[in-house]
Amino acid sequence: MRSLMLLAAAVGCAADPNIWPLPRQYTNGTVTVTVDPGLSFTGTQSADLTMAYGRYKEQLFPHTGAQAGSLKSCQVTVADGSAKLVLGADESYTLDVSATGCKITAKTQFGAYHAMETLSQLVVFNFDSDAYVVKDTPWSITDSPRFEHREVLLDTSRHFQPIASLKNIITSFTYAKINTVHWHIVDEQSFPYGSPTYPKLAKMGAYSNFERFTQQDVKDVVEYARQRGVRVVVEIDTPGHAASWCKGHPEICPSPTCLMPLNPATNATFDLIKGLFKDVQDATIDGIFHIGGDEVNTGCWTKSSSISAWLQQHNMTADQGYEYFVGRVTDIVLDLGMIPTAWDELWTHFGTKLDKKTIIHQWHNGTIAKEATAAGYRVVWSSEPTWYLDHLQYTWQVLYQGDPCVGLTDAECSLVIGGGGEMWGSRVDTSDIQSTIWPKMAAIAERLWSDKSVTSIDEATPRIRYFRCLLNRRGVAAAPPSNKQAGSAPPTTGSCFDQ
Q1: How far is 191 from 440, CA to CA, in rounded Å?
Q2: Pairing of strands 71-80, 139-143
Q3: pTM (2 d.p.)
């Protein structure tokens, strides 16, 4: 890839164009081509592609009344324009733009979406000529992601995020080719998900009657994301982080004064979990389900006379009770035909006792990814603190240095399906979530998409400044990348490009 970049530089163009994330391979020239604001996408047609063509035409041409241009159509050839959105779906594409035409090829509509996004970053408006142009043609781009799973965790429990906010954020993800929402939909603070089978969970556990999701709300978010090539992986954290469950169903909790972890000594707990998970499955389309499993303190179990007696009766320590609980929850997910993902405490506690299908989500620093992949388990990498977006003091430059495969062999790296930024909701709500995610998440997005050799902060700095301004022009409240703390306001007056 670097040889192609150098070739681009040799013909008089910048080595790194204003495309984010940087494509894996590209060449370009020196000719400016005008683009007609009536540009049409021709070729492969499907319901999903037709919607995408409409979205990107609007995105490409925000200024009305522009002059006509010479580039009037873009030929799109997609092998399967109605492919199923799953982990590992092909997202590769090629994009060629020249004075004689525009051509996109992809194996699925998801690759075509990425190609149109790249095209939308190449097309700029020239205010002096009142025309849309693509500079430095001919462009020839061949692109595909380094990792198949590129997520942002959205936490709707600690602070509720309305549907409109979630959709706006999902739209912004497509600008950086992020393809997964990890929806941490409930937690100990509140239970906004309206389970049809167990409605008291949300009725009693939500912050208010206005801060809840219906089953149809979840379906609508999932479909909105699917239309944009973004998967939605829901997390229901068990057995810890579950105090909000107890307001509606106290029978599954250790006691009225010691609420979690959930009670392992009664089948009522697992019956409820099974029904709840089935409800989530009915509202979603992804084959992966995140069961949480983190930060479990079994103190409430040992303080409960009935649970202590149950543990003794089954010859279990509290930690073995934790293993029993995780095993039953994992079996529920597997019986539903889904793949369980869990935070790395499960690996630390139980290692290879875990079902081999389980995906380990590393969040602690250390050797967990190496240990798990060496044992044949798949891994998602979101190492705290650097890829935790709620750690506001870490700048994008720090995030840009992260790599899910650091210290891993090629064979071990092949089992790392990806990673992402975790936007925990303790310190953000609808008012500042966009400026906290962006532009820091762009650093993670590029590390997950672009070639592993793309690591230079100096080379990325002008591009991330440009990308932040692009986000602003598209209505995304991205904060200045030079800020020392995420989400803070600009320090003074000035151009977007200088902040």
Answers
A1: 28
A2: unpaired
A3: 0.96
Q: In this structure, is the dihedral angle defined by the CA atoms of residues 422, 223, 85 and 179, taken in order, positive or negative?
A: negative
Q: What percent of the chain has pLDDT over 70?
A: 97
Residue of 192, 335, 226, 209 lying closest to 275 (CA atoms) = 335
| Other C-beta atoms lying within 10 Å of the C-beta of residue 382 | 25
pLDDT tens digits, 103-147: 999 999 999 999 999 999 999 999 999 999 999 999 999 999 999
pLDDT value of residue 15:
56
Q: Are the C-beta atoms of residues 116 and 95 closer than 8 Å to each other?
A: no
| Residue of 295, 323, 345, 384 with catalytic role | 295
Using alpha carbons, select from 46, 121, 33 the residue that is nearest to residue 76.
Answer: 46
Strand 25-27 relative to strand 139-143, pairing: antiparallel
- Contact indicator for 95, 143 with CB cutoff of 8 Å: yes
Is position 211 annotated as part of the catalytic site? no
Q: Specify the higher pLDDT residue, 83 or 485.
A: 83
Classify burial at 448, counting beta carbons within 10 Å of its beta carbon; exposed 0-12, middle 13-18, buried 19 or more. buried
pLDDT value, residue 13: 41
pLDDT tens digits along 280-312? 999 999 999 999 999 999 999 999 999 999 999
| Structure-derived torsion over alpha carbons of residues 415, 420, 426, 428, reported in degrees to the nearest 10 | -170
